Amino acid sequence: MAAAATGLKRFYLVLGVVALVGIAALVYLVRQPKGVSIPANVTVLAADTAGFRGYLLGSDSAVLEVSEYADYECPACQNFETIQFPAVRDQLIATGKVRWRYRDFPLEMHPNARVAAHAAACAEEQGKYWELHAGLYERQGEWALSRKASGKFRELADALGMDRKRFDDCMSSAKYAGRIQASLEEGIRLGVGSTPTFLIGGRLFPGVLTSDSLRMMVEQAIPPRTP
Amino acid sequence: MGLALLSLAGLFISIYLYLFKIGKIGTLACGTGACEQVQLSPQSRFLGVEVALIGVLGYAVLFGLALLALQPRFAGPSWPARLLVVLSGGAVLFSAYLTALELFVIHAICRYCVVSAVLIVVIFLLALRELGPRREAPGLA
After folding, report:
1. Among candidates A130, A148, A72, which has minimal Cα distance to A105?
2. What share of chain B is helix, strand, coil (3-state, %, to 5)?
3. Any chain B CB within 8 A of the CB of A38?
4. Contact call for B26 and A18, based on CB within 8 A
5. Segment (H or E) for A15
6. Which chain B residues touch A36 with a CB distance below 8 Å?
7. pLDDT tens-digit readout, A96-141
8. What's the ipTM?
9. Does A37 contact B72 at a Cβ distance shorter than 8 Å?
10. Deepest of A142, A199, B71, B118, by most Cβ within 10 A of its Cβ?
11. Which helix (H) or strand (E) holds A27?
12. Residues in CB range of B106: below 8 A, 6 or more apart
């Protein structure tokens, strides 16, 4: 009887140690800076895409819509965004000729592409989508191969004056994973195979386009005005 | 004793997954990303309740019962031991259902769910053994 009681006491001691180790591990994990992982290949629900066609820039009454399928981690997309896109925005979007539609097309080879796309989606919640979009491309070299990319996105969000807690909660929830997947699947259905790829007037144009060639394509696609 | 230790292990795994679900932990130490895929899928809720939370409550109850069953006054096939068999048996069926969802609906396997499924099967078998006839030590009969 006494031996059984001693055995039980010893067992409670072991159990207590296991419980303490478990609690310490959980506390440690909770206090770690939050890394973010956005799941791939999620099932797209109707709610993921309801009322959302992509990130739109430009007038609703623009004559033509240009869709860009791009990946934030892709160097060619960065090249287009930083070198060509400013002229596109000034000459085609601001003038009301074109409405730009940005679609996420995160490539599997880019481990941080989905997280970046999700950060941009979270920025949209706070009305800072295009600002974060530009920041992601401008600072691509700082986060593209980093294992702490989500920390860089947080810095960008802070620099843009976003509500940090709201941004963190949005990122942790991964609530836009379905929307990103839907965008990728749309591109695949259309035949997009690389980034960036542009959809102009029902035709796909893969690769970086210069602002001049885009302007020419747009002008060809816009029906001439009748006097 | 094994029942209590295994239930405690299951409890910690469930708490870990639930903390992820409620955004207290950013990423799961999973490696493949499949854990997040499973935990963020629509199937991670059962009748409107987070499966991870069901795990936390279930393992907590099993842990409590396992501790009760250890008490000398509940030695043998007492009500805590019987309840342990019933609840862990139900949990085995629920785990089988969740594993089927992972395989055939979500098409991803979360390693923590696999560990939990193995734990619950072992807990069930141990609980069954506790309920069975006790072997007498030689020389004490």
Report:
1. A72
2. 70, 5, 25
3. yes
4. no
5. helix A2-31
6. 26-27
7. 999 999 999 999 888 899 999 999 999 999 999 999 999 999 999 9
8. 0.74
9. no
10. A199
11. helix A2-31
12. A43, B37, B38, B41, B43
